[in-house]
Inverse folding.
């Protein structure tokens, strides 16, 4: 699985790249602060999430620190999805946050 640091993800967004990002934390973590316009698909709701995602997109997966996103990415890859794990997760995120 490919990976990207949270700072690199922010740079891509600031450069206007259109990315498919999903947050796999739980609702309370998401409510405390998340990247604007990024949907929540909690890891606890997998594998139902895989059915909602198009297989022709590349998904950047973020969590708190990078562990759950790795788990979610492994699962999605096994289902035929293209994924990139966001290393450092929201702990390393230095861009805008929406609560």
């Amino acid at each position: 699985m490919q990976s990207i640091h949270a700072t690199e993800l922010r740079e891509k967004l600031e450069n206007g790249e259109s990315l498919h990002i999903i947050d796999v934390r739980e609702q309370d973590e998401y409510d405390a602060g998340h990247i604007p316009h990024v949907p929540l698909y909690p890891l606890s709701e997998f594998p139902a999430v895989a059915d909602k995602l198009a297989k022709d997109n590349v998904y950047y997966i973020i969590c708190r620190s990078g562990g759950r996103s790795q788990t979610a990415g492994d699962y999605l890859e096994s289902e035929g999805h293209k994924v990139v794990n966001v290393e450092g997760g929201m702990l390393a995120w230095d861009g805008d946050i929406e609560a």
Summary: Helices lie at 6-14, 27-32, 67-78, 89-92. The first helix runs from residue 6 to 14. The chain has a mean pLDDT of 96. The longest strand covers residues 82-87.
